[in-house]
Write a structure and sequence with these properties.
single chain, 330 residues, alpha/beta, D-Maltodextrin-Binding Protein, domain 2, six-stranded mixed beta sheet, five-stranded mixed beta sheet, globular
């Protein structure tokens, strides 16, 4: 039994591990549930965790330049469509994605995964490249911390905002034309502020996107300290197995009606809708069943000037987990 400090977000698919409903064989895990931005910074900058949930985009960049202290496992605790993440001024003639060309667009951190995926969507679906936009980065709102700029994108115009300002206030004041954010800016959307989402009916658009492309964007993955992974044979597959057991537990419980697993009154109805739209295995782990999603992320990172080379998805993961099949977990 080895002691491991684990930094991970609190979700239905991780809580079973934290609660001891399932475990990681051979690991005595101590869980740290700090805010995700803090977890990421402590993982990348301090190597504070043995096992950590980490930003996929920043992980790809650090791996591409040979500076990542973690090796990846094909376990993806956070996934999200990002049509909803683009907010625009409605008084600037921005009526469709192509109108973003030449605009000043704010983002908390250029290399964060939510922005990576939103920009990938703009390029793949609408032909709007990252290089077509002037990006500005800084705190999302007055309560946000200063972002960490891990890299400067190649061939992309990127500027730091004044340290006395934040992007939400700048969007409200009309100092920027749009903003890409993983949570809504602190602005009342609508005519009173002239700020709305670029895609108004984003749920329907995300359903259409999922059906056409087969992609459910990955935001985060689980990483293991390189020295621990290579120095402890068999550990990485055991970690994968533990997270898979926790995911299965959550997937089984979300459809319960008698004693609902979530606080959503119609949670089982929404669960069945998601299964109907996306299929029974829409939230899977493993490289094989996620290769299309992973290759898209690798392509986005290079096209957007983040990774200095075209990275292969196979080089992101610990070798013995490349053929790990979650269907074999018992």
């Amino acid at each position: 039994m080895i002691e491991c400090q684990v930094g991970v977000g609190v979700y239905d698919r991780t809580l079973p591990l934290m609660a001891g409903v399932v475990d990681i064989d051979g690991v005595n895990a101590n869980y740290d549930i700090a805010p995700l931005e803090e977890l990421f910074a402590r993982a990348f900058d301090e190597e504070a965790f043995d096992i950590a949930e980490i930003s996929f985009s920043n992980f790809m960049y650090l791996t591409a330049v040979g500076e990542c202290p973690y090796v990846g496992l094909p376990v993806f605790p956070s996934r999200s469509f990002r049509h909803s993440a683009i907010y625009v001024r409605t008084d600037r003639g921005i009526n469709e994605p192509s109108d973003l060309r030449g605009r000043r667009v704010g983002v908390r951190e250029y290399s964060m995964t939510a922005a990576l995926v939103a920009r990938g969507l703009l390029e793949d679906e609408y032909g709007v490249r990252s290089q077509d936009i002037h990006w500005l980065y800084g705190p999302a709102d007055e309560t946000d911390s200063q972002p960490i700029a891990r890299m400067l994108p190649d061939g992309v115009e990127l500027s730091l905002i004044d340290k006395t300002k934040n992007l939400s206030d700048m969007l409200k004041a009309g100092e920027i034309d749009a903003m890409v954010a993983y949570k809504p800016p602190k602005i009342d959307l609508g005519p009173s502020t002239n700020v709305e989402r670029l895609f108004g009916d984003y749920p329907a658009m995300e359903v259409d996107y999922a059906k056409r492309t087969g992609i459910f964007p990955i935001m985060h993955l689980v990483g293991v300290r390189r020295d621990l992974a290579y120095g402890t044979p068999g550990l990485c597959k055991k970690i994968c197995d533990g997270f898979e057991k926790a995911r299965r537990y959550a997937m089984e419980r979300i459809r319960e009606d008698q004693a609902p697993f979530t606080v959503l009154p119609w949670g089982s109805v929404e669960a069945n809708r998601s299964l109907t739209v996306l299929g029974d295995d829409y939230w899977t782990y493993g490289v094989a069943s996620n290769r299309k999603d992973l290759e898209a992320l690798c392509r986005y990172s290079f096209n957007q000037g983040i990774s200095p080379r075209q990275i292969s998805c196979d080089e992101l993961f610990f070798p013995e987990t490349l053929d790990w099949d979650p269907r074999g977990v018992v």
